[in-house]
């Protein structure tokens, strides 16, 4: 009886999530009267603004992943190796973006870094892009840190460090040739989640007036019904692709030997 109710719950949940997606997909194919077609998708892909917004968000995601990785991996390594007593503090800090709304964070940035402040980051295009990358790093911090920290638990950080130091390795060599290869599964997990977050984020990009994919989707949705449905399916496909790559990376990481 318990299995029966469990399956009922699974079916209800699947219907709740899948039926709206099927409806959105079906609507996106009805741009041509009385026939199914990919006209909406062709219209989206032929729009230069779509290509620019998508490419911009992909670039922001790449920069967020790189800089987030360079911040999180050394931090997790140092906390685990040298400063385990501050681990609860670091975990608390990395969880804060989950409880502080993105709109609160971005309004804080606008208040601190507006064009009339001491550090006018929002007064120039490149510095605003830098501020947006910092915003995305903050949003992805809970996922990136926990992915890396979980991967780091599977290796003996102390032994690897001592072995590398006994061979005369410097700190940078230890980090990039010993630690990074062994936590790459966690880095990839955090990277794919970060990609999904950046591609769908709207609040920060909109308030910072950046031409990202999220604001572009909102703009199209306000004016073009069929194209907005097509964009929703495209965004969903990017998210599912990220999740699929995450599962693939996790599976291969279990088969990979630990590098010393």
TrEMBL record:
Keywords: Cell inner membrane, Cell membrane, Membrane, Transmembrane, Transmembrane helix, Transport. One of its GO terms (cellular component) is plasma membrane. InterPro entries: MetI-like (IPR000515), MetI-like_sf (IPR035906). Residues 54-247 form the ABC transmembrane type-1 domain. The keyword Protease does not apply. SUPFAM superfamilies: MetI-like (SSF161098). It is a multi-pass membrane protein. It is found in: Cell inner membrane; Cell membrane. Belongs to the binding-protein-dependent transport system permease family. This is Putative ABC transporter permease protein.
């Amino acid at each position: 009886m318990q299995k029966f109710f469990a399956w009922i719950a699974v079916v209800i949940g699947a219907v709740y999530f899948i039926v709206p997606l099927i409806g959105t997909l079906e609507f996106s194919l009805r741009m041509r009267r009385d026939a199914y077609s990919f006209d909406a998708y062709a219209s989206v892909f032929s729009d230069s603004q779509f290509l620019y917004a998508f490419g911009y968000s992909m670039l922001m995601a790449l920069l967020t992943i790189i800089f987030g990785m360079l911040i999180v991996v050394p931090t997790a390594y140092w906390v685990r190796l040298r400063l385990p007593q501050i681990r609860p503090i670091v975990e608390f800090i990395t969880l804060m973006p989950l409880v502080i709304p993105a709109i609160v964070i971005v309004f804080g940035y606008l208040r601190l870094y507006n064009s009339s402040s001491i550090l006018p980051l929002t007064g120039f295009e490149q510095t605003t892009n830098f501020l947006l990358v910092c915003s995305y790093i903050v949003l992805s911090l809970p996922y990136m840190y926990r992915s890396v920290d979980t991967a780091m638990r599977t290796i003996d950080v102390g032994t690897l460090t001592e072995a590398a130091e006994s061979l005369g390795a410097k700190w940078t060599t230890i980090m990039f040739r010993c630690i990074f290869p062994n936590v790459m599964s966690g880095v990839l997990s955090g990277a794919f989640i970060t990609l999904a977050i950046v591609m769908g984020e709207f609040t920060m990009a909109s308030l910072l007036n950046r031409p990202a994919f999220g604001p572009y989707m909102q703009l199209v949705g306000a004016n073009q019904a069929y194209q907005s449905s097509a964009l929703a399916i495209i965004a969903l496909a990017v998210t599912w692709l990220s999740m699929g790559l995450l599962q693939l990376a996790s599976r291969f990481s279990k088969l990979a030997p630990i590098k010393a």
